[in-house]
Amino acid sequence: MGIATALVWAATAVGVTSAVTVAHAEDAAPYEANVTLLTQKVYGDDTYPVWHRRLLPPETPRARYPGFKPETAVLKKGSKRREGAKSLRCDILLERDVAVTLRDGNTIYADIFRPTTNGTYPGIVHWSPYGKETGNQHLDDIPGRYNVPLSSLSELQKWEANDPAEWVCNGYAILQPDTRGAFSSTGNFPFWGRQLAEDGYDFIEWAANQTWSSGKLGMSGNSWLTISQ
């Protein structure tokens, strides 16, 4: 699989709303109707022309996007997100689609899970474009669910990330953003590079200054979530 094919496949799997790198100019011909040439930060402050391809809209069933729903809710102890999933063992405060403005004016949206009691808490950031909860990647898509029983998870977790239900009940805040260009987050979705790093920095600085934050934040997760660190 060549780099152009690999990147186009990844873009389709991600299912984000904006644009994503497909390859160099000579590889863009088959996608002329859906591509545009944009600049992207790659190393340092240098920018390079990179072909981007328009992706599927978030309402596509494959994306499993629940829609843009800013709200604050309490998820009650003992409740279940779906039949067969693990019951919540404590009350959890959910702030859905919280807006975070990046340095260039674009806005990304995050779901924040935290304890319901007043106080300050350390936070764990799950940084990826896969959706803030179920999203477009899910264990149900994998034969045998990688041997992870549905009953072992609350189904509040992001793909390849920690389960908020476990960590919130142990005194942590869990932050699950849709990165630049994913779902309702604005901007063009970059494949790695300086832009991704700057966005992550801005998000963590924002989180550290929230009234519920102790100022101590870490990042966690597998694959994309690990590489992003």
UniProtKB/TrEMBL annotation:
Keyword Signal recorded: yes
Signal peptide start and end residues: 1-19
Matching Gene3D superfamilies: alpha/beta hydrolase
Domain Xaa-Pro dipeptidyl-peptidase-like: 104-228
Any one GO MF annotation of this record: hydrolase activity
Keywords: Signal
InterPro entries according to UniProt: AB_hydrolase_fold, CocE/Ser_esterase, Xaa-Pro-like_dom, Xaa-Pro_dipeptidyl-ppase/CocE
Highest taxon, organism lineage: Eukaryota
Protein name listed in UniProt: Xaa-Pro dipeptidyl-peptidase-like domain-containing protein
Record organism: Pestalotiopsis fici (strain W106-1 / CGMCC3.15140)
UniProt lineage: Eukaryota, Fungi, Dikarya, Ascomycota, Pezizomycotina
